[in-house]
Design a protein that fits this description.
The complex is a heterodimer of chains A (about 270) and B (about 950). Chain A has about 270 residues and is α/β, with parallel strands linked by helices. Chain A has one domain: Rossmann fold (3-Layer(aba) Sandwich). Chain A has ten helices and ten strands. Chain A has a six-stranded mixed beta sheet with strand order 6-7-8-3-9-10, with helices on both faces. In chain A, β7 (about 175-180), α7 (about 190-205) and β8 form a beta-alpha-beta unit. The longest helix of chain A is centred in the C-terminal third of the chain and has 18 residues, at about 190-205. The N and C termini of chain A lie far apart (about 40 Å). Chain B is α+β, with helices and mostly antiparallel strands. In chain B, about 60% of the residues lie in helices and about 15% in strands. In chain B, about 45% of the residues are buried. Classes of the chains: A alpha/beta (about 270), B alpha+beta (about 950).
Chain lengths: ~270, ~950
């Protein structure tokens, strides 16, 4: 049960769910080195929805992948619920994914051979954990999938598919849900539904969500917005408004030089 | 474009290895089977050229419908596809010998299987498959055989051995050994060794004195003074074989010289050799199709593996093709980059296959030589065989690659980036088509069973046109057509079965391994055709072996059943060679302490039933009246078998009764043969011999006088002594050699007293010894089986040992207790099965390739899905388990279909041939169970490589494909 220590009363009070310490990730060899993450330090608070923003190549996806144990950092440490992710074996990683982490991807979130209900219950069954039916009913009602439970993913719309993915991620009540552009493929109405649902889960059930997006509208649902550029966090905004985020991106073109961004990040 | 294709081929080479192996195996079977057939045919031709080497043959002029001799020896001498002609009189040889251009014309007497040679070490020389032949040989009777040492045999106590026989037996000229004649073993001296130009394929050939061979042949055939052939050597080439033209001329001259009414006809040696060769080749012909079935399986899987492999390659290269297309490459050019790879693959695979096939045949030849059957036939593939192999390999590869190549060529660049897999076309049309085919096949089998079960007089079906077909085709055709339809039907139906079968078979894994089991089961149903095709490879192999397994097991059980239900005696005694048990051996057995009673089964030679043109032959046995009380309990169809036998009526097997339309109470004419001493001819022969000796002595005397007159005293004395010796020798000559015999025919009217259906008596007619004595006599009746009952309270095991000791001096007489009697059949059946299991193993290996390949393709298509599963917490073991379950389900599906179809086919075959000894159906459940367990293992093993590939992809790469 050590892996589930995060849900024990002793550590549940810890306000930080996940933490990156001096995280660096470089790709390529000496000739063509690309630095995706450049000595990043960041904490993700419990019960908060954090959006990670930034232009393509800014390292936002890499940060999330390293946090979630999908990618190994070149140096630095990642700690989730007091467990050091960056040094975990495959077996430990599997256990971490079962107990502490939920995923929502941009597309291809669902196993095509399983129905919506089976997809939602899949993580619990893989982990051989008991199914809390009451919780399941609540989740299904909140995402509004009751009439669609017996459908296969191919019979669902894009928005419905993403809602199934959200329900699946929340069903296991993980310590943190990592969402990679969850609304990237959706129209605005579906996006609003999905984002509203994620936000509700944070507020109503204290779920922690880390979401990568480049959509300012999506980011505006978050409690906190981190802006990355060239592998560094250049902004850390608490409860920003949509206009504030837009403004941030409007000035982003000017903030291209590394020295300036670093100064502002430190501030 | 071609250069791109070649470069791609090099890059993809590791991917191609499996395809190359599959193609190579398939092609090797094709080439090997052609090679093997060519070798056998070559061997047959060589042997015929050497063994049937007369220039002209004279044989009967009218074809015989039903050969009495073949039927009498239970039809197993293999001459089934050879036409037979009426016998001709041996005296014709004298007439023919006088024809101009004829060097010699004589009958070569020979017996096959009637003799056993005892080797130097005192054991009987046994051969595998090839018979021991005794041939009457002297100077000039066999042109292709030449003495290498010594001389030809002159009497019963001399033999000349073929070099192979001498080598096998470890005997050389001057050695004395024993030769087991049908009447018992006798001491013989090896007086010569001869050789032939070609190997005799392991046959042991013993050169006998011609008159000895003649007696033996007459005894074996029950015919005297007649023969099938008279062989004629021409003198035109000074002893060398005649050309085809010369043969024709000589045959024409001989034909003209044949007296009218002789019912004889002269043909060229070439014609007879062609006929023989065709019939032998027909008999060996079954081997090639059997090998070809497995070649087809291998090639089917091969093309399938190739299609899968290319699908994977094309999928992965789609972007590259899209790029080529967008820079102006035509669809055909893209197509050709793929096809070039396929061509290369086909070439490499076929080349390897040809080499492999060649090697296999060489290996078989080497194996046969080790086992004592050396072959001199050419075992190398001809250019035609190689071309066939190459063509087959390349065509199969191209077929496999064509669809993926088309997909590569025609996909619009936009779609090439898209991962969506088009949903599969519905499979129900295949389901319907498959069921229709299976139903037709089942109908064909039902028809076949109906034909088999129909008795005489009653038609198999109520429909006249079907009855017409039945009489025209017999049971073989409906059986084969039914099997073909059902096998193809199952293959057609299989995709429609994948869904339901997955649900049923997947029930256990889905409940034991909740998630992985369910995922695996659902995955199978995604690509139903692919799953079904993969399973089909296993299906065909398993079906064949299950079918044969059922037939073999039923055959064993039927024999065991005869023993368990009917045999009352403690021991049975049979001869390993001719079937005849020497009289001395019978006496020896009767004298053994503890023997209660001995029942003799004596076969009557050349007995026919009916009169005029309706004569029918049937195996006829003379039995003791106590047969049904002491040896076999009768399974009576009608009448009282025991009473009938005791009162001198016929007891008829059911098959014989049905064939002849006999009922209880019918009176039948039994035509027998008795060989008696021809007093007149014997007297004449003796007189002739005396006259010959006299004239010879007189000639020598006069020569001596002439020499004496010319002053050569020593020469004269020598000649006089020689004359003296000739007369002395004549006194010592065995009078038996001068006895002339003749055949009398008898006609006895007997009532049919009972009809029985014991499987061993089904095709026999039984009568008691008294009646048999009226039909035939001692010279035309031979004991072929003894049944021994132990005395009350005797120790059976000890008695067995004493019996074995008692028959030891006769070499060929076997004593079997009840269990041994049961297992004789079993061991033979098991030996045949070993070969089939080897073939099964090969087809399983091929099927494993198919499963590995299908899973590999499936894994490559599901890269993202597996990544997703891993991301949400699926462990590596669970992924492995999922794939193992998928593979096992495919394997189990194929095996189950195979077992069900095979068992059904086996059961039908048993029903159809029930009257030929397959009385009991026995399904080897444990063996079939082993197949199933093995298939699960096969699946688990086959899943290993694809699972490794699936897990090698990092989760992140699988999920984040951009």
């Amino acid at each position: 049960m050590a892996g589930r220590a995060g849900t024990d009363p002793g550590t549940a009070g810890d306000a930080v769910v996940a933490r990156a310490i001096d995280l660096t990730k470089t790709y390529g060899d000496a000739d063509a080195r690309v630095t995706a993450l450049d000595h990043v330090d960041v904490d993700f608070a419990r019960g908060e929805m954090t959006a990670i923003m930034g232009p393509s190549g800014s390292g936002k996806s890499t940060l999330m992948h390293c946090m979630a144990g999908l990618d190994a950092p070149t140096s630095g440490r990642v700690v989730v619920e007091g467990l050091e992710v960056s040094s975990m074996s495959q077996r430990q990683l599997t256990k971490l994914r079962r107990d502490q982490i939920g995923f929502i991807f941009q597309s291809f979130n669902l196993v095509p051979t399983l129905t919506a209900e089976e997809n939602i219950l899949l993580p619990l069954q893989i982990a051989k954990r008991p199914i809390d039916r009451a919780w399941f009913d609540k989740v299904v009602d909140v995402v509004g999938l009751r009439p669609r439970l017996k459908h296969r993913p191919s019979q669902l719309s894009g928005g419905q598919q993403q809602r199934v993915a959200c329900a699946r991620a929340i069903m296991a009540r993980p310590s943190v849900i990592f969402a990679d552009e969850p609304t990237g493929n959706l129209d605005s109405r579906s996006s609003r539904e999905v984002l509203g649902f994620l936000k509700d889960s944070v507020h109503d059930y204290g779920q922690t969500i880390v979401m990568v997006t480049h959509d300012p509208r999506a980011a505006s649902y978050a409690d906190r917005v981190l802006v990355l550029a060239d592998g560094r966090i250049i902004r850390d905004l608490k409860h920003p408004t949509y206009d504030r985020i837009l403004a941030e991106f409007a000035t982003e073109g000017d903030a291209g030089d590394a020295a300036g961004t670093k100064a502002r990040a430190d501030a | 474009m071609i250069r791109i294709g070649l470069r791609d081929a090099r890059a993809h080479f590791p991917r191609f290895i499996m395809s190359i192996i599959a193609i190579a195996l398939g092609v090797s079977f094709v080439v090997g089977s052609f090679c093997f057939r060519a070798m056998m045919n070559d061997q047959v031709d060589q042997m015929l050229g050497s063994n049937t080497d007369h220039d002209v043959y004279v044989r009967g002029s009218t074809e015989r419908e039903d050969d009495a001799d073949a039927a009498a020896s239970s039809g197993s001498d293999g001459s089934s596809s050879m036409k037979t002609y009426n016998d001709i009189d041996v005296s014709l040889a004298t007439t023919i010998a006088k024809v101009r251009g004829v060097k010699t014309a004589e009958v070569t007497y020979s017996v096959s299987g009637a003799l056993v040679l005892v080797a130097k070490d005192g054991n009987a020389v046994s051969t595998i498959g090839s018979p021991t032949m005794g041939i009457g040989l002297e100077n000039g009777t066999w042109r292709s055989a030449h003495l290498t040492e010594g001389r030809w045999a002159r009497d019963r106590h001399e033999v000349a051995l073929h070099a192979f026989a001498a080598e096998t037996a470890g005997l050389k000229v001057g050695d004395t050994t024993k030769l087991v004649y049908p009447s018992g073993p006798e001491d013989v001296k090896v007086v010569g060794v001869f050789d032939t130009d070609v190997s005799q394929a392991g046959a042991i050939i013993i050169g006998l004195a011609p008159n000895v061979a003649k007696e033996l042949e007459e005894e074996q055939s029950g015919e005297i003074g007649v023969t099938r052939y008279i062989g004629v050597y021409g003198s035109a080439n000074g002893g060398a074989p005649l050309s085809a033209e010369q043969q024709r001329e000589l045959a024409d001259r001989v034909e003209r010289a044949l007296p009218s009414g002789s019912k004889a006809h002269a043909i060229t040696g070439d014609q007879l050799r062609d006929e023989y060769s065709q019939s032998l080749k027909d008999q060996l012909g079954f081997i090639q199709p059997l090998i070809l079935i497995f070649a087809v399986i291998a090639l089917f899987v091969g093309s399938f593996i190739i299609a899968n492999t290319f699908s994977m390659i094309v999928r992965e290269s789609m972007r590259g093709y899209a790029l080529l297309r967008s820079v102006g490459a035509s669809p055909f050019q893209v197509f050709s980059t793929v096809i070039v790879q396929a061509l290369l693959l086909g070439l490499v695979g076929s080349g390897a296959g040809i080499a492999l096939g060649w090697g296999m045949v060489r290996l078989i030849v080497a194996g046969m030589a080790r086992m004592g059957t050396p072959m001199t036939g050419a075992a190398d593939p001809g250019p035609a065989d190689m071309a066939a192999g190459l063509l087959v390999g390349i065509v199969v590869t191209l077929i496999g690659a064509a669809l993926p190549a088309r997909r590569a060529a025609t996909a619009p660049p936009i779609q090439a980036m898209n991962e969506t897999v088009n949903p599969e076309r519905p499979v129900w049309p295949r389901g319907v088509a498959g069921i229709v085919m299976i139903a037709l096949g089942a109908a064909s089998w039902t028809f076949c069973v109906a034909i088999a079960n129909a008795g005489d007089g009653e038609p198999p079906t109520p429909l006249p046109f079907l009855n017409d077909l039945a009489s025209r085709w017999g049971v073989g055709w409906p059986l084969g057509v039914g099997a073909g339809l059902i096998v193809i039907g199952v293959i057609v139906l299989a995709p429609a079965l994948v869904g339901p079968a997955g649900a049923v078979l997947g029930w256990i894994p889905a409940h034991v391994f909740t998630v992985t089991g369910r995922l695996a089961t659902r995955n199978l149903a995604r690509q139903k055709r692919r799953t079904a095709n993969t399973a089909a490879a296993l299906f065909v192999g398993v079906a064949i072996v299950s079918c044969l397994g059922v037939v073999a097991s039923s055959a064993k059980a039927s024999v065991a059943g005869i023993v368990d239900s009917g045999l009352k005696s403690d021991f049975s005694v049979m001869s390993a060679s001719s079937g005849r048990i020497p009289d001395d051996a019978i006496k020896a057995i009767e004298d053994v302490r503890g023997v209660g009673s001995v029942s003799k089964s004596r076969m009557l030679m050349g007995v026919t039933y009916g009169s005029g043109d309706d004569k029918d032959s049937a195996m006829t046995f003379a039995e003791q009246p106590s047969l049904f009380t002491k040896v076999f309990a009768p399974v009576t169809n009608s009448g009282n078998a025991d009473k009938a036998l005791r009162t001198g009526e016929l007891v008829v097997g059911l098959t014989v009764a049905q064939d002849n339309g006999w009922q209880i109470g019918d009176t039948v004419t039994v035509n027998g043969k008795r060989v008696v001493v021809d007093e007149e001819a014997t007297a004449k022969a003796q007189a002739d011999y005396q006259a010959q000796v006299q004239s010879q002595a007189a000639a020598l005397q006069s020569e001596a006088q002439r020499l004496a007159a010319s002053g050569d005293v020593a020469g004269a004395q020598a000649k006089a002594a020689e004359a003296q010796k000739t007369v002395e020798d004549a006194k010592n000559v065995d009078p038996a050699t001068l006895v002339r015999t003749k055949t009398e025919t008898t006609h006895v009217k007997v009532r049919v007293g009972a009809i029985i259906e014991n499987s061993i008596y089904r095709s026999m007619v039984l009568m008691n010894d008294d009646l048999a004595g009226k039909v035939n006599n001692e010279n035309t009746m031979f004991t072929i089986m003894l049944f021994v009952n132990a005395q009350e309270g005797a120790d059976v095991a000890a008695l067995k040992r004493r019996l074995v000791d008692a028959v030891k001096p006769f070499y060929v007489v076997n004593v079997q207790d009840r269990d041994e009697f049961k297992s004789t059949m079993g061991t033979m059946v098991d030996q045949i099965l070993v070969i089939l299991y080897a073939l099964l193993a090969l087809s399983i290996v091929i099927a494993v390739f198919g499963i590995v390949n299908t899973l590999a393709l499936s894994v490559s298509e599901r890269t993202r899905e597996i990544g997703l599963l891993r991301a949400i917490g699926t462990s590596r073991a669970q992924v492995r388990g999922m794939l193992a379950i998928e593979a096992s389900l495919i394997a189990v599906l194929g095996t189950l279909l195979g077992v069900v179809t095979g068992v059904a086919a086996g059961a039908v075959i048993r029903l159809v041939y029930a009257s030929n000894g397959l009385e009991r159906l026995s399904i080897p459940w444990d063996q079939l169970g082993e197949f199933l367990v093995a298939s699960i293992v096969v699946g688990v093993v086959a899943a290993l490589p694809p699972a490794r590939r699936a897990l090698k992809v990092p989760v992140l790469d699988a999920v984040a494909t951009d």
